[in-house]
Amino acid sequence: MNPVFYHNDSGRAWVTIDNPPVNATSQAVRAGLIEAMVSAERDNCRTGVIVCLGKTFVAGGDISEFGKPPQEPHLPDVYWQLEQSPVIWAVALHGTVLGGGFELAMAAHVRVAATGTRFGLPEVNLGLVPGAGGTQRLPRLVGAELAADLASSGRMIDAQVLFDAGGLDAVVDDDLEGHIGKLLDSASSHPLTTSERNILPVADDYFSTLAVSVEKKAKGAKAPLLNIEAVKWATETDFSEGQVRERQLHLALRDSEQSIALRHAFFAERLVSKPAVIKNVSAAAVKHITVVGGGLMGAGISAACLAAGLNVHLIEVDESAVTAANERVTGLLQGALKRGKITEAGFEAQRKAFSCGDDYRASANTDIAIEAVFEDMRVKQKVFVELAKHIRDDAILATNTSYLNPEEIGADIKNPQRIVGLHFFSPAHIMKLLEIVATKHTNEQALATAFSLAKRIRKVGVLSGVCDGFIGNRMLAAYRRQGDYLLADGATPQQIDAAMRAYGLPMGPYELQDLTGLQIGWANRKRQAPTRAATERYVSIADQLCEKERFGQRSGSGWYRYESNNRSPVVDDEVEQLIQAYSNKNGIQRRAFTDQEIQDSMIAVLANEGARILEDDIAERALDIDMVKIHGYGFPRWRGGPMHAADTMGDDAVAAILATVDKQSPNSWVIAKKYQR
Ligand code: NAI
Question: Residue 110 in contact with residue 90, Cβ under 8 Å?
């Protein structure tokens, strides 16, 4: 079906795009636009209006076409033809006018938006520059500064901001088409086209200064800088040359590793919330949440639920704990108010939706109960039993445990099909990841409801089975273990940290441990000791640090030392000596590692653990693992996650690295089938 309709209303062409869900500029839309323009010229229309059906104007290109050779007609040609047309073309803008949609608007002669319409060039988020004149027309419309900002950040701006910058002819509250009609009636001659406009000059060092700050934030992603470069061309060349250069760069970037990885992440984000097990299963309605335990995690979980408009009742042990929890949650809400995330009215509404006490009877009408008490099996079991006495039989019982088995936590519960793990990450009101853990009893509706809660509270829910550490912390354990082997064999914490930062992570493994504290890892290693394979290489350097009460930043020292009131890690001779002594004692001849060797081995063990997680049916798809690492552990999005990164390296290359890793630490790794040679 043709997604573009043409209609001649007494010399005014009406062109309607109807390509749900977001009116993307697919091949059929491009061809339809050309056809409509030809019809309008044939009919000698003086003016024309392009409108979109549905909830938005064109909100981008058809990303599924990006992996294939571009098909005619090409978007830059369509927009050039529109701009050069003898017909005076107006666009009626609503919803989110993004990417190719924004470029279409820029090429039109008259631009009118409904109040609240938002505009942006999100190509940068897919590792691209715009491909149809966005970086060349936008600076001509609104100046190079705003254009460079929008193209390099991908952020959206409101119609009013765009209007104030000169990018729109009008912003109207109602009767968009009526306003456009009047503007076109009074347009006596063809206005100056966008590509003919001059750009106001910017300071000599404007682009270079911007590039320095953007590069720092990009942490290895190339597209932000390339977008600045493309906007700069607009200030140096005429439109036709700039447009050709932009298009060439756009097409080259479509095949780049970074863009392919970012597109993988984009699609993974859409697929991750639809695991096969909940296909065609409907979620139960959720309105009331009970949280048990109002410490660090319980308070954050409460705040996340309140922000989504849910009612939250929090249960603590006694009066003083209730007061403390209340203060913690109120503090988080006040923080949101102070940072402008919520209005005063929003703050009041959330305060009203929140209650806190020590009586389980208040949980009677809860839809989902989430326990976030101490990481202690007996305490958690008791809380579940208490909850089960009071909540409805069909209400969901959830645990936020990081390492304990949810099946065992629910051992005394009659109907265990309603038990799920809801593993939040700290700080829970900010971190995007939510591991949704299914036990062997959990039923599909409980899972579907958990996924719908995740969506409601704006988290990326990822399905995980039960294993030690679930997906994320199991991956982390392998990664840290390899780091410790490298330390023992000759690397230093600062070298490993620098190598992983250079790979694109916000922090290396050792500075991160210092930030979060070494105690949890220590407790875990002790817990795992009885089941650890006797042959597995065990490096005790971290344990020795803990024995010296070097627990990280909060205790003033860990893998690094910290000067008072300063969070910057300082290399500590004592740690270097301790590592050296460890190597000496174990007869290890320390040797140098290159950053590449460090990165390769760290990514290879992640990919290996991920492959084993798939073999063990803990994750349904590799993309689930990528989502866990990107949204919970800061893995660079432009690398697509560890599984995608490993695929990019190639199975044989990863297998070869793993063979070396295995030789360096014999009997310590189980190599996934995929990487056995
Ligand atoms: P926390 O020590 O800050 O808070 C625990 C709270 O539970 C305390 O306020 C305590 O008074 C309360 N509590 C203890 N027994 C209770 C009972 N019987 N009834 C009601 N309240 C009770 O601990 P945190 O860090 O909030 O951790 C809670 C859970 O979340 C643990 O299972 C932990 O493994 C898990 N978790 C922690 C993460 C972290 O980064 N801290 C990340 C993800 C999960």
Answer: yes
